[in-house]
Amino acid sequence: MPDIHAARRARARRKFPLGTDAALITSPANVRYLSGLTSSNAAILLPVTGDGVLATDSRYTGAAQRDSPDLELLVEREVEPALAMLAARRGWRTLAFEAHQMTVERHGELSSLDESLALVPLGRVVEELRMIKDSAELALLAEACAVTCAAVADVLPQIVTGRTERGLAVLLERSMIDHGAESVAFDTIVASGPNGAVPHHSPTQRAFQAGDLITIDCGARCGGYHADMTRTVALGQPAAWQREVYELVAAAQLAGIDAALPGADVVHVDSVARNIIAAAGHGEHFQHGLGHGVGLEVHEAPMIGYGRTGTLHDRVPVTVEPGVYLPGRGGVRIEDTLVVRAGPAGTAVPAQILTTTTKELLVL
Ligand code: ZN
Ligand code: ZN
């Protein structure tokens, strides 16, 4: 594993802004990506040439020695100032930092540490590298998705009249752990009946009733990689409007997946699905983006939506998750985690869908 992390650090260095002597990496996911260490308090000082230094506090000394044996280790409580001072001592004057991640307070502190230091923004260099996954990452993501699907299959018989949203969310989360998840990827969403009109509804004590559409958005985390899947099911025979909205969202979701090809612009992928929903008169009922990258974070680059920029590439995992939300009535969302794939010589091939739970409307 250290070889993988050293290769990632080499790729990151090549993207440093011109004139950078070293970069200070402080995003926990980026630190993990470049070092292998999972820590709530760690940072990396990565010079443009030569070896990097990993700083973390004494709670993580053992983990750092085990997971990042190829990096010089600095054990300090205040990791960012310690590394900035080290950079100054080593004559690395132009220090690039993750401006999207560092607080204004911390930036002010680092700026006043040593007058020889110049802080410059690094940009989202590591996030851009993280978009394209290697095969070990894709294997962990596939595992997380398989665990998610197994857990959903387990709890489908538990979706009965009288069960509460919270009750089902707990069963689902328990099942993901039983199937081998290290954790849940995010707080499970269970939205029943009218609550389905709220895209990120928090589960309540509302009991399921016959005639509900129930939206379940969940994911397992395996080896740090996050699955993300949404299915909407019907409890009892669905009304005509419910079936109609379901078929519309399902058609938009398939079109979005078909458009998720290497070289595709993220705005195009979004609009292919969105146009189908808008043409059916529900444009105003679909107000979030179509999808997002998944990996060490549950929402990461590339974001797929109107006004976003980016292009899909081979080995980029993304979600496609259109929805229609009808205030006071309910909603439907269908979401898969999939991997954009290229065939021989970069030819476009269909995306590989990792969340394989059926997308036929399940009537329970
Ligand atoms: Zn989701
Ligand atoms: Zn999602």
List the helices and strands and how they pair.
Elements: H1 2-13, E1 22-25, H2 28-35, E2 42-47, E3 53-56, H3 61-67, E4 72-75, H4 79-89, E5 94-97, H5 104-111, E6 118-121, H6 125-131, H7 135-155, H8 165-178, E7 183-184, E8 189-192, E9 213-218, E10 220-222, E11 225-226, E12 229-234, H9 240-259, H10 266-279, E13 291-293, E14 300-304, E15 316-320, E16 323-326, E17 330-333, E18 336-342, E19 348-353
Parallel strand pairs: 1-5, 3-4, 5-6
Antiparallel strand pairs: 1-2, 2-3, 7-10, 8-9, 9-12, 10-11, 13-14, 15-18, 16-17, 18-19
One zinc ion is lined by residues 217, 228, 230, 335.
Keywords:
Creatine Amidinohydrolase, Chain A, domain 1; 34% helix; alpha+beta; 364 residues; 6-stranded mixed beta sheet; 3-stranded antiparallel beta sheet; Creatine Amidinohydrolase; 2 domains; 23% strand; binds zinc ion
Task: Give a summary of the structure in a few sentences.
By secondary structure, the chain is an alpha+beta fold. The chain contains 10 helices and 19 strands.
User: What overall geometry do the principal axes of the alpha carbons give?
Assistant: elongated
Q: Which ligands occur here?
A: zinc ion
DSSP summary, beta strand count: 19
Q: Label the structural class.
A: alpha+beta
Overall number of domains: 2
CATH architecture of the largest domain: Alpha-Beta Complex
Helix content: 25-40%
Number of distinct helices: 10
Strand content: 15-25%
CATH H-level superfamily of the largest domain: Creatinase/methionine aminopeptidase superfamily
> Largest sheet, if any?
6 strands, mixed
Sequence stretches where pLDDT stays below 50 over 5 or more residues? none
If you compute it from the alpha carbons, what radius of gyration comes out, rounded to the nearest whole angstrom? 23 Å
Strand neighbour order, sheet with most strands: 4-3-2-1-5-6
Distance, first to last CA: 45 Å
Order of helices and strands: HEHEEHEHEHEHHHEEEEEEHHEEEEEEE
Mean pLDDT over the full residue set: 96
CATH topology of the largest domain: Creatine Amidinohydrolase
* CATH hierarchy class name of the largest domain: Alpha Beta
